[in-house]
Design brief:
Length: 192
């Protein structure tokens, strides 16, 4: 008896057949590997974004150094020091204060809180930095038409608030991707 070989019809990759529309089912082990891979990729991407975005406030500090060095008046020097403080605290917030997702309204709180409670610096630094950025914005309004101050200095006073808002948005975007939500979407499919 001669062996027969069945031929499969050639299908284009763009072909809209029913087989392509069905999702591929993964067993538990494949799901765990996929979630672990996605978690590693997300952590690596967040690390890269953190390095890139931490460079923004650090390099913005350089814009205020000439005002400290060359200004004859004490007032622009003081405002420049406040701006440098705001920019460095923005970098600190990005790098050292961990991003935490707020708890869902319907979720239960654990009985024991095993994570260390953050200190007052971690709790209030963002609010203090926002207040300092607002104060610098008010100084910008005061410096706008003032004599004895460099013409563009008022725009420099707005820089810490702009950088802080960019960093806040970037942290929210990095926080919006939560791979741990995939744990709840796992389905019980046993492999062969």
């Amino acid at each position: 008896m001669a062996s027969t070989r069945l031929r499969n019809a050639f299908k284009y990759s763009i072909d809209n057949s029913d087989d392509d529309d069905e999702p591929m089912e993964l067993d538990e082990e494949e799901q765990e590997k996929l979630i672990a891979k996605l978690r590693r990729e997300n952590e690596e991407r967040n690390r890269q974004f953190m390095i890139i975005f931490s460079a923004i406030p650090v390099t913005s500090v350089l814009a205020f150094l000439p005002a400290i060095m060359t200004s004859a008046s004490l007032h622009p020097k003081f405002v420049s020091l406040l701006a440098i403080t705001s920019l460095l605290s923005t970098a600190y917030i990005l790098v050292f204060i961990p991003s935490q997702r707020p708890p869902e309204p319907g979720s239960k709180r654990p009985m024991r809180h095993l994570e260390p409670v953050p200190g007052p610096l971690h709790q209030y630094l963002s609010y203090l930095n926002a207040g300092l950025s607002l104060l610098l914005g008010l100084y910008a309004i005061g410096f706008r038409g003032r004599n004895g101050v460099h013409d563009g200095f008022w725009m420099l006073c707005l820089l810490p608030g702009l950088v802080f808002s960019i960093i806040v948005v970037a942290r929210r975007v990095m926080l919006s991707v939560d791979v741990s939500e995939l744990e709840g979407l796992k389905y019980g499919y046993k492999g062969a």
